Amino acid sequence: MSDMIKIAVDAMGGDGSPKKIIDGIILNHRTNKNNFYKIFGDKNKIHGLINNKISNEFYEIINTNDVVKSTDSPLEGAKRGKNTSMWLSIESVKNKDADIVISAGNTGALLVISKLNLNMIENIDKPALSALWPNKKGMSVVLDLGANIECNAKNLFDFSIMGASLYTSLYPNEKPNIALLNIGSEEFKGNETIKETYKILNDKNSKNYNFSGYIEGNQLMNGEVNVIVSDGFTGNVALKTAEGTANFITSELKKTMTGSILGKISTLLNFSNLRKFKKKLDPRLYNGAIFIGLDSPVVKSHGGTDFVGFSNSLDVCNRIVNGNLIKKIKENILEK
């Protein structure tokens, strides 16, 4: 077990838990025998769901009946005490009993409890919520997605370094291109904070990333930029807009292709291409937001995803640990 990646799993967070969490672990284990799952939650429910589908050498159940509810405010979630499945799973990373923690539970509570238990990486003032987005050429890292509504230039510069570190830990053979999300591509556009950040990044010559200037919202999926940086307010609006647009396109396409005999015939004739299109926009494939800036990695699975999406977020956990994310951030921060 010493060579395995130990993932602390909050089994009680998110819709349909703990069943979807355990089903996700079972699915993930089929293709990855290098993960050890430390599962926190109701032992009786969890044991019945695993039901010998995984050898007990690959998991451990830590029993607790206390949970953070989805309706809790961040403070209410933290006040539920140190025996909730969320708190205990984060604490196991703090105590070095696990390499990384994942939860599909209450996002605000996860951020607050993480900050209460884990230290910030030295020289970083604020953590950021990041995620993977699909683009025409592959994937992009986008941050901040809502952890910080107000940011200064140093925060955005730190996010750039952390985003580049995350990208290289996931894609070690690529050097990322960084851009700041803005209302225009011209150097004089944007507020004073973003213009100051532009100057800092533009003046710096880093071996770890290339700076590509500004990027507008309609260019996010072009694939020319790998790391997209913004404050949490702008990033969250961009995220929700992208999700809503993707859902609108897929639902309207489905309605068109199944609403008539001609549409159904076209669907059959284009089945292979439509399946590729659907897969490209399937949010389950990109599940797993990463809370970075703390001295241990914290992954947030979407609360509404299914077991396939949760399994994919466990893959993200594996790649983050294998890619030495925290070490990369610490080294790159010192470079500045």
Question: How would you explain this protein's 3D organization?
Answer:
The chain is of the alpha/beta class and 336 residues long. The chain is 45% helix and 16% strand. The chain has twelve helices and eleven strands. It has helices at 19-31, 43-50, 74-79, 85-94, 107-117, 153-170, 192-203, 232-258, 261-269, 271-280, 307-322, 325-335, and strands at 5-10, 35-41, 59-63, 100-103, 128-134, 139-143, 177-181, 210-215, 227-229, 289-292, 298-300. Strands 3-2-1-4-11-10-5-6-9-7-8 form an eleven-stranded mixed beta sheet, with helices on both faces.
Quick synopsis:
The chain is α/β, with parallel strands linked by helices.
- Mind telling me which CATH architecture of the largest domain this is? 3-Layer(aba) Sandwich
Order of helical and strand elements: EHEHEHHEHEEHEHEEHHHEEHH
Q: What fraction of the residues are assigned to beta strands by DSSP?
A: 15-25%
Largest sheet: 11 strands, mixed
Helix content: 40-55%
Number of strands: 11
Given the structure, what is the number of helices?
A: 12
Physical arrangement of strands within the biggest beta sheet: 3-2-1-4-11-10-5-6-9-7-8
Count of folded domains: 2
